[in-house]
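User: Show me a protein chain along with its predicted structure.
Assistant: Here is one chain, sequence first, then structure tokens.
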Amino acid sequence: NNGCSIDTSIIIIALGPDCILNVFSPNGDGMHDFWELEDAFLYTNSEIKIFNRWGQKLFESNGYDVPWDGTNEKGRAVPDGIYFYIINLGNGHDPIKGTITIIR
């Protein structure tokens, strides 16, 4: 009515643990062998850490160029079970925390 027009639109997407795959099966069958994260929301400086139930760090990645394959930092397969992750996106975003289950 005032002669104004829309020239920009912004879409805001809220991401949390419910948007992230929470089960994978690294058993070498070629299906779901890696914990895949949608790179659409990861920044190049994103930091991903995975821990066991005792708080021991098993995996760490900056940028997530190589997805987690269910092994520890020594390259040994971790047992079936529930693991914890923290994804620090950086750029002022709150960390995303959740669990991931391995079923072989």
